[in-house]
Every structure is written in structure tokens, then in C-alpha cells.
Design a protein that fits this description.
Blueprint: E1 6-10, H1 13-22, H2 24-27, E2 32-36, H3 41-44, H4 47-57, E3 62-66, H5 80-85, E4 89-92, H6 96-105, E5 110-115, H7 122-135, E6 140-144, H8 149-157, E7 166-170, H9 171-177, H10 183-187, E8 193-196, H11 200-215, E9 221-223, H12 235-244, E10 245-252, E11 256-265, H13 274-277, H14 293-298, H15 321-324, H16 329-336
Parallel strand pairs: 1-2, 1-7, 3-4, 3-5, 5-6, 7-8, 8-9
Antiparallel strand pairs: 10-11
């Protein structure tokens, strides 16, 4: 890489898709390089966490509820899609509240919601758990695989392998968190951050602001997405989240174990903890042979560096989660020809 090359990472999978769809990389000057980060919650869910959900789905009188992106993510031995085909009761929902309705309609069964997502998703699940307690539901459980973005962002900012110059930051997460959590990235790691929306103009404006910061040797957090994001964020959403969950260490695909980067239910709500309710034996987690999804999520390799990309691994027959998810980097490259 040339000394004057500027390397920017879009943290969010929604940004990755938008950048690929609009062909933004092809429009940028050669001095600017965009790389994708671990912003797809489906992709960063560890193999062991996927295996745990699959093993729970094998238990009699259990209904698994999940967002659609998780259905085809391969575990070590199988996937939700294959398990459903073999008779497991696995249902796609569009809101965690749908899982509450299923619990009320099936009192003789235990209903598990597969919780995957960042600060955008977890507050709504926290509110759902509070509602489940109000309704007195005893057959509703959450398998918490939620991630906290900023510890992972710190890991990337301090990585000797990546050497990124700045971050294009997610608008939807920032609506909840505000700007304060980005301060350490900018001040301690000297990596400027710009929070942007998801249309082409937002993204290009965000890139422009980052380049201006880098060239003027500034490192601050800026909000380009002012129509939705404030410095304080959504205080009520964070209050609800903090009332239900505590932080825990969590394993990220590609990034490994990151301290205080996951969420677990507080003792007050442990009756809804699926991991506590269901003790299952997990197979030894084995990553798909030849898949470099972990390195793609770190930003140190791209999809076209993978020998499986577009040949063995396609959206129809995905080998790794980066090709499955609607926010996955490999899926974006395959769909839009990046």
C-alpha cells in the first residue's frame, strides 16, 4: 500500500450493501480504499452459538423463532433450514413480539427467540422480555447472542494487521448510542469517526468528511446523519436495555473473544434465559474448510481472496455466513459484482 493511501472501514453491513449497490468504490479516487468490517450481526455470531441454537431445536416441544437471515447460516453439522426440513419447529418472525404471540398460542411448548444483533436490535428485545414478564409467560426464552459494537471497534482500531485510517460509522446503532462511545476511538486510537446514513449521498458525504479530517490531521467524531442521530442518542432505549441486560465477554467470528462485547440477562430476568433453561451438548465447533469469512470480517482479506467465492460458495449454496446474510460482505460482492 502506498504511503498516501487512505484506508477507511465501513463498520456496518448495511453500509457494505449500499456501497456495493451504488458502485461507490468505483467512483472514488485511487488514493481512497474502502474495506468492510464486522458489521453484520449474523456473520459475527460464533459457530458454537449457532450450534447451540440448532441443538435446542432438536428438543421435543420446542419452537425456535428467528429472523430470516439466520435460517441458512451453516452450523458445524447442519443449519436451521435443514433442521426445519427434517421436522424441527423453526419459525421466521419479523419482530420479537411475534415470538410472544407464539408463546401465548402454544402454552404447552417452550418458545425460544434467537437473539442476534447490535444496539439497534437489543433494546427492542429487552422491551419484549419486560412485556413477557408483565404477561406472566413461563414458556418464553431468549438465546442472547447480542453484540456490543464498541469493544470490537476498539479491537479493530488497535489491530496491527488492519491499520485502518478512519471509520464510516453506522447511523442506526448511533441513533441509540449517540456519539460518546466513539470518543475513545478518535482520541486514544487516533482514528476519526463519521456517522452516516445509508443512501449514496450520506455515504459519500461521510467519506468526504473523513478524508478532510485525515488530511488535516484531526481525529474527532462527526455526525453527518443529523436528521436521525444526536450526541446523546436514545436515552430511553439505553435505559430499557440496561435494565434487562448486563455485559459479558463474547466470542466474535474472526475476531475471537472480546471482553464485555456481549449481553446476558440480569438475574432479575434469568427465567427467560434459554442458555440456562436448555443444557445441550455441543459438537466440536469446526469452521468450514477453505472459508475465510473470519478474515473478511476483520477487514484483512476481501471476498475475492477466497478460493470458494462464487464457485463452491454462492448465495444458493453458502459455505459461510458472509455469503448468507443480506448484510454479508461476500453476498454484497456476489450480488453487485464488486
Amino acid at each position: 500500500m502506498k504511503e498516501d493511501k487512505i484506508k477507511l472501514m465501513e463498520v456496518c453491513g448495511t453500509h457494505t450493501m449500499a456501497i456495493a449497490r451504488a458502485g461507490i468504490k468505483k467512483l472514488l479516487p485511487s488514493e481512497i480504499e474502502l474495506i468492510s468490517g464486522p458489521g453484520c450481526p449474523v456473520c459475527v455470531t460464533s459457530q458454537a452459538d449457532i450450534d447451540r441454537a440448532i441443538e435446542i431445536s432438536r428438543i421435543d416441544n420446542v419452537i425456535i423463532t428467528t429472523f430470516g437471515d439466520m435460517m441458512r447460516v451453516p452450523g458445524t453439522k447442519t443449519s436451521f433450514e435443514d433442521m426445519k426440513r427434517d421436522g424441527a419447529d423453526i419459525r421466521v418472525v419479523y419482530s420479537p413480539l411475534d415470538a410472544l404471540t407464539i408463546s401465548e398460542d402454544n402454552p404447552q411448548k417452550r418458545v425460544v427467540f434467537m437473539g442476534v444483533g447490535f444496539e439497534t436490535t437489543s433494546p427492542t428485545v429487552a422491551a419484549t422480555i419486560i412485556e413477557a414478564r408483565k404477561r406472566g409467560l413461563r414458556n418464553f426464552f431468549v438465546l442472547s447472542n447480542f453484540k456490543v459494537l464498541f469493544p470490537a471497534l476498539e479491537a479493530l482500531a488497535g489491530s496491527s494487521k488492519l491499520k485502518v485510517d478512519g471509520f464510516i460509522c453506522p447511523g442506526h446503532v448511533s441513533v441509540v448510542t449517540g456519539t460518546i462511545p466513539y470518543a475513545k476511538i478518535a482520541s486514544h486510537y487516533k482514528k476519526p469517526c463519521v456517522i452516516t446514513g445509508f443512501d449514496e449521498i450520506d455515504i459519500v458525504k461521510g467519506i468526504k468528511r473523513l478524508v478532510e479530517q485525515i488530511k488535516s490531521h484531526r481525529c474527532t467524531t462527526e455526525i453527518e446523519y443529523r436528521r436521525a442521530v444526536t450526541e446523546d442518542g436514545n436515552i430511553e432505549a439505553r435505559r430499557v436495555l440496561d435494565s434487562v441486560f448486563d455485559v459479558k465477554d463474547s466470542h466474535w467470528r474472526g475476531l475471537g473473544m472480546i471482553k464485555e462485547s456481549g449481553l446476558k440477562l440480569k438475574n432479575k430476568y434469568r427465567q427467560f434465559d434459554a442458555e440456562k433453561e436448555f443444557k445441550v451438548k455441543l459438537p466440536k465447533a469446526i469452521l468450514p474448510k477453505g472459508c475465510i469469512c473470519g478474515e473478511v470480517l476483520q477487514g484483512i482479506k476481501g471476498p475475492r481472496d477466497c478460493k470458494l467465492f462464487g464457485k463452491v460458495c454462492t448465495p444458493r449454496k453458502p459455505v459461510g455466513p458472509c455469503m448468507v446474510s443480506s448484510e454479508g460482505t461476500c453476498a454484497a460482492y456476489y450480488r453487485y459484482g464488486e
